[in-house]
Write the structure tokens for this entry.
Amino acid sequence: MLAGPTAVGKGTVSADIRARYPQVWLSVSATTRDARPGEVDGVHYHFVGPQRFAEMIEHGELLEWAVVHGQNSYGTPRASVEERLAAGVPALLEIDLQGARQVREQMPDARFIFLAPPSWDELVRRLVGRGTEGPEERERRLATARVELAAEGEFDHVIVNDDVHRATDDLVSLMGIDPVPVPGAVSDATSAGAAAGA
Ligand code: 5GP
């Protein structure tokens, strides 16, 4: 389970896992929020309406769920997680603190990992920099972030996200997977060399 405050880079780490560690299964959450540009239904989230979300709760389809940032609901579909775990597939849930606490009660053997920003100022800079939220939503997210950062001590491991590839490698190592080299790093060096030589 990976948790951490808004804009710490959970999405970037997830994307890096998709790209470099296809053997890791990433749980796809259901959410009532609208898709952001570039987000694909069924890949990044299942974008469901509030009615369907309520139905999922009622039918016990969610392993955990929470209202995050006091606004939208997010939840982990139970069946897909249980299938992967039964098949021995390494599974990663990227959820908020409230959800992580619920999963911990139901799955005490799960690893509880906190992705932390290098500093508070850097977190604010990343949130403003990505520009996906207006000032009001940003304030709401920063208020949640303060609460989440204070809960860091509840986690089994803390990974500081000052370098995405390193943070991803630390995460997969905790899942028992050997880190692999970053493919782009070699070709970048080659193209830099080629450019310098040209
Ligand atoms: P965002 O709207 O930026 O994609 O996500 C907002 C927050 O919702 C993040 O902190 C993320 O970890 C959390 N989140 C995403 N999926 C789930 C989920 O299935 N359950 C819970 N409890 N939180 C989630």
Q: What stands out?
A: The beta strands are 2-3, 25-26, 29-31, 45-47, 62-68, 72-77, 91-92, 113-116, 157-160. The chain is about 45% helix and 15% strand. The chain has one domain: 2-183. The radius of gyration is 18 Å.
